[in-house]
């Protein structure tokens, strides 16, 4: 994807054809990221399980399946989407957190591989299924890793997983019900830059793995760092692949058989593929700052306001960089609603080519946790989505209409009297 086009299609032409605000995804970039991950782990029995909470559009799920990527879901609804996309139950991993046991039963009956993440549900699973349904256990390895406190998931105070310090209690329940534990799972967090955090977590998991006799899988989650700006540090996939492969193969040798190594990338596979396009409603010249007000807000792309995340922003309508100005890019939601956060996580400005009303503003790294976290806040309509595949743009989600806002409301006629 070049700066102003995707597979030869100009961003401004896509905005004209489909309207704004608009999410556009580059299929080539997704396929490229799949290949990078596979190439980093060539010498192991690798399975990639796409963490679909990052982007659940069915066309994206079908693209993943076509390229041999299996899927990780976190809700019954994501499970249903995976089935609609053509996945079989055995290709689906269910990794919930603190859900009712009804959801566990639903996933078990669908034939998925379930990650059990607390002692209570492990006990209930054993009571219900004994050794008739295989399962994985999600462990908390007490490792700090991730780019933001909100996306660290393996540290001691995290809600996710069963603490490795509860090993004896885990083994007691497994033995009591003869539960067939086929895998151990952990997820360090998101935006992990180097191999250290992965290695600490892997070491903790492999140390406890020797106590389980039926293992087929070691699942090390995801969290690989992607670039958000030029020169940004990213996960060194070759380093991670080299170090983890060595330790994993050594464990398999000592364990006595070959196991599968699973990863569950979400952002890594889809983030860079996405570009969000919005129209400039107004350029507001202020004594303190200049504002670009676009036809979108945190209701469509919430990551900057939720995490203080940096996204590259540029004027797709003006390629002339001879005149540039600093702008704060803001949305139309009726509260502070800023897109242009600094790399340090503060609201700020961006030096951009001169912008006027009607120009198309492009926001990069919009493929993960963007549309999937969108809402109808302020009773605004969610945008359309487009997938660029083999040089052609395909509409993969229609823009909402006002009927979608009213769809599930029940209007009481008692107020009409």
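^ structure tokens above, recovered residues below v
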């Amino acid at each position: 994807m070049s700066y102003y086009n995707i597979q030869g299609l100009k961003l401004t032409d896509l905005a004209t054809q489909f309207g704004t605000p608009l999410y556009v995804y580059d299929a080539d970039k997704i396929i490229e990221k799949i290949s990078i991950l596979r190439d980093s782990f060539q010498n192991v029995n690798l399975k990639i399980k796409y963490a679909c909470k990052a982007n659940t559009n069915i066309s994206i799920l079908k693209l993943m399946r076509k390229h041999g990527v299996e899927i990780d879901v976190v809700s019954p609804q994501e499970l249903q989407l995976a089935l609609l996309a053509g996945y079989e139950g055995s290709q689906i991993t269910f990794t919930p957190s603190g859900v009712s046991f009804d959801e566990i039963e639903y996933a078990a009956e669908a034939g998925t591989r379930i990650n059990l993440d607390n002692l209570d549900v492990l006990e209930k699973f054993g009571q219900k299924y004994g050794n008739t349904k295989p399962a994985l256990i999600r462990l908390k390895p007490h490792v700090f890793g991730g780019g933001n406190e909100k996306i660290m998931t393996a540290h001691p105070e995290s809600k996710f997983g069963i603490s490795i310090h509860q090993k004896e209690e885990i083994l007691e329940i497994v033995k009591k019900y003869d539960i067939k534990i086929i895998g151990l799972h952990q997820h360090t967090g998101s935006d992990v830059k180097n191999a250290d955090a992965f290695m600490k977590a892997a070491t903790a998991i492999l140390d406890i793995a020797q106590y389980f006799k039926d293992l087929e899988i070691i699942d090390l989650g995801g969290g690989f760092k992607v670039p958000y700006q030029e020169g940004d540090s990213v996960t060194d996939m070759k380093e991670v692949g080299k170090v983890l492969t060595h330790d994993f193969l050594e464990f398999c040798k000592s364990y006595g058989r070959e196991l599968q190594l699973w990863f569950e990338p979400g952002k890594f596979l889809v983030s860079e593929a996405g570009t969000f396009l919005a129209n400039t409603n107004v350029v507001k010249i202020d004594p303190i700052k200049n504002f670009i007000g676009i036809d979108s807000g945190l209701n469509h792309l919430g990551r900057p306001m939720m995490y203080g995340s940096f996204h590259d922003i540029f004027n797709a309508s003006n390629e002339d960089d001879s005149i540039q100005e600093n702008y704060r890019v803001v949305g139309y939601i009726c509260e502070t609603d800023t897109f242009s956060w600094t790399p340090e996580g503060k609201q700020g400005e961006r030096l951009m080519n001169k912008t006027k009303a009607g120009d198309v503003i492009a926001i990069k790294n919009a493929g993960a946790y963007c549309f999937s976290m969108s809402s109808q806040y302020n009773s605004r309509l969610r945008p359309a989505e487009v997938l660029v595949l083999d040089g052609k743009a395909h509409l993969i989600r229609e823009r909402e209409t006002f009927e979608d806002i009213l769809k599930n409301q029940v209007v009481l006629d008692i107020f009409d009297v």
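The longest helix spans residues 237-255.
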